[in-house]
Amino acid sequence: MFKAVFPGSFDPPTLGHLNIIERASAVFDELIVVVAENRQKKYLFDVGERLEMMEKIVKSMSHGSNGGNQARNNVRCASWDSLIVDFMKKEDIRLLIRGVRGMDDFSHEFELSMMNKSLHPDIETLFMTTESKYIVLRSSSIKELASFQGDVSHLVPPLVAEALKKKFAGN
Ligand code: ADP
Q: Residue 163: its pLDDT value, please?
């Protein structure tokens, strides 16, 4: 069984994240999307909101009703408020997936993978390169765009676009 985790803030989930989930779910037997809760970070959506969005998205992906993004029925979601290596130890998973958009992402991800390896030598980090259409897609710019009531419907799943609209209503 090749089980893998795909951890991230997903604040909020974007079509770039979904693309990685879709492709990773095609390659591994089971994929767990881990929504991270880090007390040092400030999020727009709290962990419960992010997990709920991700669960709904994954469900609609496995039903093929998510605008072209499709995942197999082998994806589940979880939240975690500590080191990802501890989640992986608990679940007995060795493979960690990270998406990379370019060299900037890679140098950061490379350091993270070294850190994780030093904490838990059995862990292997696998990098999945983004698809070119998602290269400039990042949660932070989507939040900024949405805060000015910009149209984000081509960048995120419909339920995320709706949630962003609600968050920034009245701004
Ligand atoms: P984190 O705060 O852990 O970096 P993110 O939610 O920003 O969490 O990203 C989670 C993972 O998804 C990271 O590996 C990140 O590089 C990847 N990712 C984010 N946006 C994209 C994208 N457009 N294409 C491919 N991978 C992406």
A: 97
Atom of ligand 1 nearest to the CA of 140: 7
SS3 30: strand
DSSP 115-148: HHHHH-TT-EEEEEEPPGGGTT--HHHHHHHHHT
Q: Which of 164, 148, 168, 147 is nearest to 156 (CA)?
A: 164
Q: Give CA–CA dist 68/119, Å, rounded.
A: 38
N residues, the chain: 171
Q: How many whole angstroms separate alpha carbon 162 and alpha carbon 65?
A: 17
Q: Give 27 Cα–ligand 1 centroid separation in angstroms.
A: 18
Which residues in the chain land under pLDDT 70?
Answer: 64-71, 170-171
